[in-house]
Amino acid sequence: MCQSMVMQKYHNILIFCFFCIQFSFSQGFNMVKKGHILIPGQEYNDVWGYERNNGQKFAVAGTRQKTLIYNVTDCSNPFLVFEHTDGFSSIWRDYKTYGNAIYATADQSPYNQGLQVINMDTYAVTYYNTHFLRAHNIYVDTAHARLYVAGSNSVNAGLIVFDISNPLVPVHLQNIFINVLMGAPSLNTYVHDVYVKDNIAYTSNGSVSRMIELDVSDLNNVQILASYVGPSGYNHSSWRSEDGNYVYEALEVPKGLPINIYQKDEENDNIFVKIGDFKDPLEFPVSSTNRPHNPFVHENKLYISYYEDGVQVYDLSNPAAPSRIAYYDTYTANNGTGYGSSSSFHGCWGVYPFMSTGCILATDIETGFYTLELDLPQVSWNANVKTDQNFYQSVASKGVVLRSPKGYCFRLDVNNSGQFILTRIVCQSNTVDEKYIYRADLSVTGQSSSFIAKSQSGSCYKISLSANNQISGVGVSCPAVNDAALQINNSNLIIDTPTKGLVLYNSLRQKCVRFTVTDAGTFVATELTDCP
């Protein structure tokens, strides 16, 4: 790893020791791309995954025309093993698995093949269309060998249930009409999606802004356990926490709504109460109208396919207040310009986080199929990009950028009064030249060296540290072209790991101090035991 930086006296010097440390290139935060496949001319939609007893691992991904099966045993080397074209074009396809069967359906007229069952061993495809012709989503309760069909043409306001104890031969069990159970047969309780655990079904009921919790243990006597009427918006999909006490709801329409958090009321188990919401748009502060799609909970983390914001991952250590820890932006066409019109749907459609290896699967409508991995900061990451001389930020509004724990980007600027400030910016922009330091500090640790920045008025200021490690600015002459100072010119240099930052030497304390940033945009000073 790089421990020092060779100095050169050129006006446009950038960090040129990058070849000796690892990088993150523009699209990810604490998450890295392992593999990527795009079939030209195809628009992708849903993705699911499964593992065989022999250790082989597979992804099932849909496009408008095809079902694709990829071998993802090696997360870094996915490859296509099967594709099926059913003769219909559909924006909406959905997949689940059980035993040796892959279940598929589509939801766009004139699709009329009902439930497709694909044999994992032979890839033979069988169609079951007696009970429905098309549907929006399916879900498998693996513990009870049942398949639930949501948003079908025949039971639009409820669910169709199949027994799949013989995985390749589903047997119809029951139709559930939620509006009838509610005593309101005229109510449009269209079920857009469903999630089932422990014989409890959580239905996302579209435009009526409801989630219904159903006891489906006895299909001849289905009971409504709880429901809520959420805020205005289209209840697209929901997923519960692993302890069952919280539900995370994605409202897909209109654009710009947050993920809502619900908890069962302490006094009435039949009511869910909204206790909070959250969103972290990658395009902020340019725009905040990002659109969530599908949430999934796995190993105390919430994974969300977030359309133009790619895959986002939240820590659920406090399930009432999820905190983003990672993302990978699969759709970069809008970077730095916002989210487009309210009717636009681009980017990451689906995410599958359940592989035992930690390989994360994702599909992007335009850019294809991805395999990803979390790459969270480790204590062992101790690299440094280091200089013993001044570091000069020679162009105002460009320069060193620090990442906060949630991945927000704050540029270190100096204002016309000589105060060093942190300015929130879009982390990745197609119009800005961006360089990256990954897993390493930027250390400016000569005893007389520091960080120099130019203000909008053209004056230069040098960081000075007080006895309690507070930052202040001291006016200095701007370094000349031939001065022995490392310069960054007309680009942003992003220190891309939130536990890393800018290390400066405090001569008053004779200590080195690492400066990182909070999510609120304030400095955190950490005194180091040893200087780099």
Strand line-up in the sheet with most strands: 1-26-25-24-23
Task: Please state the structural category.
Answer: mainly beta
Number of spatially distinct domains = 2
Architecture of the largest domain in CATH?
Answer: 7 Propeller
List keywords for this structure.
532 residues, mainly beta, Methylamine Dehydrogenase, Chain H, 2 domains, 5-stranded mixed β-sheet, 1 helix, 44 strands, elongated, disordered N terminus
Can you describe what's shown?
The protein has 532 residues and is mostly beta strands. The chain folds into 2 domains: 18-23 and 378-527, no CATH class; 31-374, Methylamine Dehydrogenase, Chain H (7 Propeller), CATH 2.130.10.10. 1% of the residues lie in helices and 45% in strands. The chain has 1 helix and 44 strands. Strands 1-26-25-24-23 form a 5-stranded antiparallel sheet, with no helix packed on it. Strands 30-36-42-43-44 form a 5-stranded mixed sheet, with no helix packed on it. It has a 5-stranded mixed sheet with strand order 39-38-37-31-40, with no helix packed on it. The longest helix has 4 residues, at 178-181. The two termini are 13 Å apart. Residues 1-24 have low confidence and may be disordered.
List the helices and strands and how they pair.
Blueprint: E1 28-29, E2 31-37, E3 44-51, E4 57-63, E5 66-71, E6 79-85, E7 93-98, E8 101-106, E9 115-119, E10 125-128, E11 137-141, E12 146-150, E13 158-163, E14 171-177, H1 178-181, E15 193-197, E16 200-204, E17 210-215, E18 223-229, E19 235-240, E20 246-251, E21 259-264, E22 272-278, E23 294-298, E24 301-305, E25 311-315, E26 323-328, E27 348-352, E28 360-364, E29 368-374, E30 383-387, E31 391-393, E32 400-403, E33 409-414, E34 420-425, E35 434-437, E36 440-444, E37 451-454, E38 460-465, E39 471-476, E40 486-488, E41 492-495, E42 502-506, E43 511-517, E44 523-527
Parallel strand pairs: 30-36, 31-37, 31-40, 32-41, 35-41, 36-42
Antiparallel strand pairs: 1-26, 2-29, 3-4, 4-5, 5-6, 7-8, 8-9, 9-10, 11-12, 12-13, 13-14, 15-16, 16-17, 17-18, 19-20, 20-21, 21-22, 23-24, 24-25, 25-26, 27-28, 28-29, 32-33, 33-34, 37-38, 38-39, 42-43, 43-44
